[in-house]
Design brief:
Blueprint: E1 2-4, E2 18-23, E3 26-30, H1 36-43, E4 52-54, H2 60-63, H3 66-75, E5 82-85, H4 91-98, E6 109-111, E7 118-122, E8 127-132, E9 140-145, E10 149-152, H5 154-159, H6 165-173, E11 175-176, E12 179-180, H7 181-184, E13 185-188, E14 192-196, H8 203-209, E15 214-218, H9 226-232, H10 237-247, E16 251-255, H11 265-273, E17 279-282
Parallel strand pairs: 3-4, 4-5, 5-6, 14-15, 15-16, 16-17
Antiparallel strand pairs: 1-2, 2-3, 7-8, 8-9, 9-14, 10-13, 11-12
Helix pairs in contact: 3-4, 10-11
Bound molecules: zinc ion.
Zinc ion binds at residues 7, 59, 61-62, 198, 256.
């Protein structure tokens, strides 16, 4: 769910950043810029829907909304714990935003700052990883990886005469009467999602994007302004699309647009010109983008 798509300053049509990923019953809020609380309302997202907040870096368009969202979580007495990830180097900014004004704290917010590349959390359904990006202030991108599973193949099961409760037994025990799980199933690749915001091209961008089913990535600039992009630590539409093409991304979501551009279609044209052939969305506020079905 796209809550906002503007970089730096909101426009009449674009709120500051904000994205909610719904993943196996969890809600993960990325980069809540100013106005995110109200965008959540407009999008039908409640404070109760949140389990995790991930902030890439402490520029206002990615974090000013923390103050409002955190107070709303407490006002609504969200019954579960919420975990917040953000660059440890910005702890003082997080502290200020968390305690920007007086309110009654009712909810446990676990602070889990990021200081290095690698896994941040493992749940039953996924691993959350961070990779450092390249921006004037320290910035981390995030990646969610579901472990691979196995898909049972009915015709192979039938060929081996395995049916009914024996199928479950084989899945639990790995083999049954000389038939192994590998004989009657195939790998079901886990889904992958990455969130890459505010960076120049760097190793982290490629590592995060690698093999993603969905990549949400900034394309602040159009290709003709690549010099500006490099100078300010951003990507162009063409750069983002080439990353997605080379990484085998299935659905590319471009966002975080500079207010200097008026025609969103130009981002799409440049992404296609860069050779990206997968599904492509040029994000706008309050757009719902489904993660592609498992392969
Ligand atoms: Zn930004």
């Amino acid at each position: 769910m796209v809550l906002g798509t503007a970089s730096q300053v909101p426009t009449r049509h674009r709120n500051h950043n904000g994205y909610l990923l719904r993943w196996d019953g969890e809600g993960i809020l990325f980069d809540p810029g100013e106005g995110t609380q109200r965008q959540m309302l407009r999008a039908g997202v409640a404070a109760h829907d949140l389990n995790r907040v991930c902030v890439t870096h402490f520029h206002g368009d990615h974090s000013l909304g923390l103050a409002g969202v955190i107070q709303r979580i407490n006002l609504d007495r969200v019954p579960h714990e919420i975990t917040a990830h953000y660059p440890r180097s910005g702890q003082r900014f997080f502290d200020r935003l968390r305690y920007a004004t007086a309110y009654r704290e009712t909810v446990g917010i676990t602070e889990a700052p990021v200081a290095a590349d690698g896994p941040l959390a493992r749940t039953g359904g996924y691993t959350l990883e961070a990779r450092k990006l390249s921006h004037p202030v320290e910035s981390y991108g995030y990646r969610i990886v579901e472990p691979d599973g196995r898909r049972m193949l009915p015709e192979r099961l039938a060929a081996h005469g395995i049916k009914g409760p024996d199928v479950g037994r084989l899945q639990r025990e790995g083999s049954l009467d000389g038939v192994s799980l590998e004989d009657v199933s195939e790998v079901r690749r886990g889904q992958r999602f990455a969130f890459v915001m505010d960076t120049r091209l760097c190793d982290g961008v490629y590592a995060l994007a690698d093999g993603c089913d969905m990549l949400v990535i900034e394309s602040t600039f159009l290709d003709e302004d690549e010099e500006l992009a490099v100078e300010h630590g951003h990507l162009t539409a063409g750069q983002a699309a080439r990353v997605a093409r080379d990484a085998g991304v299935r659905h590319l979501v471009l966002t975080h647009f500079s207010q200097r551009y008026t025609d969103p279609d130009e981002f799409e044209r440049q992404a296609r010109a860069a050779g990206y052939e997968g599904e492509l969305t040029v994000a706008h506020d309050l757009l719902r983008v489904p993660v592609p079905k498992r392969r």
